[in-house]
Amino acid sequence: xxxxxxxxxTPDGIPDGIPDCAAEGLPFPEGFLWGASTAAHQIEGxxxxxxxxxxxxxxxxxxxxxxxxxxxxxxxxPEDMDLLAQLGFTDYRFSIEWARIEPAPGHFxxxxxxxxxxxxxxxxxxxxxxxxxLHHFTLPRWFADRGGWTAEGAIDLWERYVRATxxxxxxxxxxxxxxxxxxMIAVADAIRxxxxxxxxxxxxxxxxxxxxxxxxxxxxxxxxxAVIRSFSASGDIRVGWSIANQxxxxxxxxxxxxxxxxxxREDVFIEAARDDDWIGVQxxxxxxxxxxxxxxxxxxxxxxxxTGWEFYPQALGHALRHTARIVGAVxxxxxxxGIATSDDTRRIAYTxxxxxxxxxxxxxxxxxxxxxxxxxxxxxxWGSYKPTFGLIEINPDTFERTPxxxxxxxxxxxxxxxxxxx
Length: 422
Prior knowledge:
Layout: E1 25-27, E2 33-37, H1 40-43, H2 51-56, H3 73-87, E3 91-95, H4 98-101, H5 110-125, E4 129-135, H6 141-145, H7 154-164, H8 166-169, E5 175-180, H9 182-198, H10 211-230, E6 238-245, E7 248-250, H11 255-271, E8 279-283, E9 287-289, E10 295-296, H12 315-327, E11 332-336, H13 344-363, E12 368-374, E13 392-394, E14 401-403, H14 405-416, E15 418-420
Parallel strand pairs: 2-3, 2-12, 3-4, 4-5, 5-6, 6-8, 7-9, 8-11, 11-12
Antiparallel strand pairs: 1-15, 9-10, 13-14
Helix pairs in contact: 7-10, 9-10, 9-11, 12-13, 13-14
């Protein structure tokens, strides 16, 4: 890691002016996953065969800015992994891009499969355990054009792709995530269908997830799980998927309404993971529900992030406990948690609070196997580069990588092998 890119630190590696939370921390369990996450479309750049690239360049005004080169991580992934390893992280979650691997129906690119296998090998060479996600929101354009997840034969085509990824994930990859946030995919499909019916894209409210998409995604996950498990005769591969936890909190008298609101938007997807090897918990903020079953805004005095979300690190504890109540004995992994901010001290404050929730969950007996921060890099946040989530800052002109103080601080916790206490 170039010295010019590193924050000034104390002899213990903690950035100047930042408290050392490792001093009185909880030793985390052996094998704990301590890392950061990314998604291919958000960091690679020039994913020209995807449905999102098509949407970004449609000219209909729905997308504020296109992804273009993103963080150029397609070419610069060795530098990204070098930084994460040198900072002290032990795990890196990244996705592989279906639109690159199968750019046309039935045509699988050997070059792209080899590219992603190089990433797996590169992570291992640097002491990073790779967690590979097979689908993180984007689809091949041809798959989307034929109707997406609910089209006839879609699950068979998905299975064909999953089988084709064996050279990438079949050896030395311990954790595989089939689909990232299927509940948000089903919500997006509902929005598209409502927009098509109304002649425009709805801009207010969150509809129910599309039921047909929900059913298809659950089937796709179970099909992929069986295929991936077949890759390893020894059963070394651990398969799961990650759910967007909105942390639905009832206002007084709204308990039943909140449960009814939550089930189709979140709980049905958690229930589908009861036979999985792990489940990914992804949490950023909370959503309060009134007795009529409607979301209510955050308090006017609440601090907000660059995405407009309430600053509420306690959400992660609620998400872990809610997921554990539904899924039973399935291990939990925090696969995304973070904050969009231009003030890195608030990132450290938020992450400290979130990690204290992980500590409390472990002390209460929850089976939490890891924490992966969102995001390793500043990236394309589905229409805009303005929300900066990265532990590592990206110069949009030169692509220079600069670890923020939060990256050194969080990597220091990983090196110390502890989680902060309240």
